[in-house]
Amino acid sequence: MYLQRFKTILPLMFMLFYSSSLLAKTQLVLWHSWVENNSLWLKIKQDFNAEHKDIELKINGFAHEEMKKSIILSGFKSKSADIILMPSDWLGYHNVMQFSVISKDIINPAVNPVVIDQTTFKNEILGIPLFQGNHLLFMYNKSLVDDPATTWEALVNASEDLNKKGIKPVAINYNEMFWFVPFIDAFGGFPVDKEKVKLNTAATVSALKYYKYLAKIGVLDKDCTYQCVSTDFYQGKFAYSLSGSWTYKLAKKALGDNLGLAPFPTLNGHEFKPMKGNLVIAFPKHSLQGSKHDALVKFSHFIQQEKYQQLMFEESSVFPVNVAVMTKILAHADSDFKFSYAQFQRSRALPASTSIPAVWNGMYKGFMLYMQGELSAKEAAIYMQKSVEREQMILNRKHH
Amino acid sequence: MFINLFKSLRQTLFIWTFVFSLLPLYFFSNYLIGEFHHIQINEQIEKLELQNLNVAQSVEFELQLLTSDLIQTSQDADVILSAYIGVFGQKAREKLNRLTSRNSLFSAVMLIDKSGWIAEASPSKAELIDVSVLLSEIDKLSKDQSTVPQYIVKIIKSSQLSNSLRNKASIHNEIYQGKTPSDHILLYISPLIFTDSETLNTGYLVGLVPMERVFDNWQAKLSNSQLIDLSLENESIVSRDAGLAVSDEAEIIAVKTNIVINKITASNRELTSDLVENKKHLILHANVERDKANALQKVRTVIEKFNFLTVFILIIIIVVNVYIIQKILNPLSKLSQVITEYANGNLHPERPELFFNEISQIIDVLAEMAKRIQLNNKELEQRVKQRTYDLQRAYNDLTTTNEQLKAMQKQLVESEKMSQLGQLVAGVAHEINTPIGIAVTAATALMDKIDLLENDFSQGKLTKSRMETSLKYHKQCSDLIYNNLNRAATLIQTFKEVSVDQSSESRRVFNLYDYLHEVIASLLPELRSYQVQVTIEGDQSFEFDNFPGTFGQLLTNFVINSLRHGFDKNIQHSIVIKFTLDEEFIYLTYQDDGLGVSEEVLPRIFDPFYTTQRNKGGTGLGLNIVYNLVTQRLNGSITCTSVVNEGIKFSIKIPQVI
Asked: Which residues of A touch B91 (CB under 8 A)?
């Protein structure tokens, strides 16, 4: 009889103990889109949870755009992530995502101050910089190219021979604005100036025309997607690739010594400057100001430690924001890394403003309408301007 | 002539085969086809109605699905939020593209935010459409409804929007031309409501279906039919070009149907449970027509096939019949040949191989008959030989007898002639005897007187008065002698001429009129016994080269016949002899007014030895002689007409030159 009762009571006691232990821990949920670095996140989670017994860290990985949407959607829901690891240009969504303002004392003093400025929005720090990078590299296949082109004009000239050999000249994520914007810059007009959008310009018109021209003569492939700049380039289908710095490791693994890095070719004598961004930790729905403040601060300090800076670098080739760590890395870096870092420094930083997120969506529509022949380049530029301004207006208004 | 058609076995068979079997079959079949055609027309009408109903239901269902799909899409989070913020734009765009690719009726689908901005559109170029017309509808929607906007569907008319859709939208190519452009658009507006934590209306999902597209869709589903127009509440929305419509109402089959545009399915009702159904159904009316010729094309094809087959089969049957008829008639033809051979006297014709036993049997029978005929022929030949011999003998006898008879006839004719001549001579002798007698008497008297005178002279008793008286008596006697002797000489001359002519049959040139007179003159002795007036009429100057004797014989026979058979000595009679001429012939008629000849006798009047006076010495040869003389000597013809008691008339036609 007692045994029977004990068998009944024991699970109940266990459940009570477990739930009470749960109730005692603060749960932190972290969302990221670094899904290729699962082992890293696992370690981070294990280390943090081991170090902080009163906190339970949960980490969820998302596809990049899905995470963005999920964050925004979560704004309408009661439940949301506590921490998100995101590109710094997402800070433009601050009205929608409701990022917490971060006090400077949470940020590791070893973080490069320049980087901290890039996460400041209207004099308020909205994200803790963690890594830098997210820039483009001009890669080429040494087995297909002896001397990499230094100008876009040279690329144009070389394309005919390459096409005759069945090799496409340049891999580019043709319809992604991140790859197109540098062309506008090369024609003398970057689309944003802090909060101001500048798309209705001659530079945009010229860039559109030139971009279309490059596809028409076979230098670029208008049907190219991310596959071109990755798999197809690794398989030798393309001579050159404008690839993200985050793909360097894969490219190196695929092409080995045949992987070459070159400076971006100039365009009409102008420097071709891709953009760059930072990876930051932010606290949506003002989570930092909520009940989990202490736990979040602990995590912030935890993740900014040098060892994790180093670890993340090793796993993903992103540049740590910790100056000391970066210096050490540079001291022992190979030429490719140094070249990549040099390219990074030459790239244009994306400011934390509503204009940048507005630009991606608004530009794309105008871009597609031009490419489909529905609008002239001039009309497309005007349309882009209106579209982005509208998006910016939405981002600027109060949502919740 | 119709009956003659059936006298040929070949034709009869053909006619029977074709007219009495195939043609009725053909006409009966055509009658059935006609009935079939009529039934088909009714069936086509029913089919068209059914087809149109099916198409209407299909279109209605498609619109319901479209509505359902639109409403579901409008409830997708990406779609709702893309009208709110551009982050969701790409996903929303993809979903809108899928919506339009699933629903080809949509010309464009747009996400419009509350400020009227087109956040996303499919096709993307639809973002450039001026939607100010729609904004007024959206505005109305926002104002008219409760806090939660409702789903609506309505038909609007806007030329500006229609043109924009034609230029900017048109995912799918327009298939059917030939309709009057329509500015009517079926407008669907579904509100975008985000209800996770709060009710948030981010905008509207707008779907545009040009009514032209509904028209095309409807038309595409119809087969062999024309959609004429779509109308709403008696107002035509889209119609076919008038030029393309079949104008003649008699040549079309027309049906009507209607669909409810804004019908919401049961599943839709669930989706729109918070939404209020439209209070009023939008009923679209469709007029569909089918060209009868088109509709009945299959029937016509069947009929043509039937006709073709019928003609083809007819031809085959005819060919087969011809072959069979040939097959049947061929033996008959061969049989005919065999019979012809037999008929031509060939009793051993080649025996053909014949298909039919019956005809072979006939051939056998014919062969048998031929054998018998051959035997009989032989027998007959024998008999014929014998008979021929007998006949030959008889013929010879007859020939001899005939010649004897001919000789006798000739003799008789000659004797008749001589008899006639003798009569003529007797008559002439009698005639001559009179004047000669008178002359002799006068001569005797004169001689007596001369004797007296001589006596007186010798005696010296001759006085002047007695001399004057004696001279006067002597002159009278001399005149009497002279005249009577002249008369006798003339008679003799005439007789000579007539008898010589009649006996010698010489040919010479003579005056017909004069000669006839001479002949009559020679017959005066005979004529004097009767009271007869003879008249001769004709061309008195006509002369020709002929046989005068023959004319004398003719006339002599006629006159003698008239005297002997026709005249009564106590009654006055007349004989009229006329002759007329033309270029070629002489037409001579002899007519008396005697007793005439009966109808029974007339046909035999020229027969030799035929006489009604045999008991009075008639020979029956006179008119036979006349007939022979006219026909043989003169190369002419003679006819006889007579009426009893009115006389007899002989008409002779002879050529002037013989």
From this structure: 65, 69
Residues from chain A contacting residue B198 (CB–CB below 8 Å)? 76
Nearest to A369 among B85, B91, B128 (CB): B128
CATH fold group of domain A2-133+277-347? D-Maltodextrin-Binding Protein; domain 2 (3.40.190)
**Sign, Cα dihedral of A358, A363, A366, A369:** negative
Chain B residues in contact with A394 (beta carbon < 8 A): 84-86
**Parent domain of B584:** 505-655
Closest to B108 (Cα-Cα) out of B12, B213, B223: B213
Domain C-terminal end among B250, B268, B295? B295
Verify whether the Cβ–Cβ distance A358 to B127 is below 8 Å.
no
Distance between CA B311 and CA B26 in Å, rounded?
A: 9
CB contact under 8 A, A69 and B87: yes
Ranges for all domains in chain A classified under CATH 3.40.190.10: 2-133+277-347, 136-276+351-396
Number of domains in chain B: 2
Listed in sequence order, the DSSP H helices in B249-296 are 266-271, 292-295
CB of B628 closer than 8 Å to CB of B554: no
Nearest chain A residue to B200 by CA: give it.
A76
Fold category of A136-276+351-396 in CATH: D-Maltodextrin-Binding Protein; domain 2 (3.40.190)
State percent of chain B over pLDDT 70.
85
pLDDT confidence of residue B275: 41
Residue B381 resides in a domain:
no
Q: Look up residue B197 and give its amino acid.
A: S
Asked whether the ipTM of the predicted complex exceeds the cut of 0.95, the reply is: no
A149 CA to chain B: closest CA distance, Å?
34
Average pLDDT of chain B is 82
The answer to pTM > 0.80 is no
**How does pLDDT run across B188-244, given as a tens digit for each residue?**
999 898 876 567 788 899 999 999 889 988 888 887 788 888 888 888 888 887 655
Which parts of B460-523 fold into alpha helices (H)?
Answer: 464-504, 512-522
Single out the residue in B257, B279, B295 at which a domain terminates: B295
Per-residue pLDDT tens for A5-58? 666 666 666 555 555 555 578 899 999 988 777 888 899 999 999 999 999 999
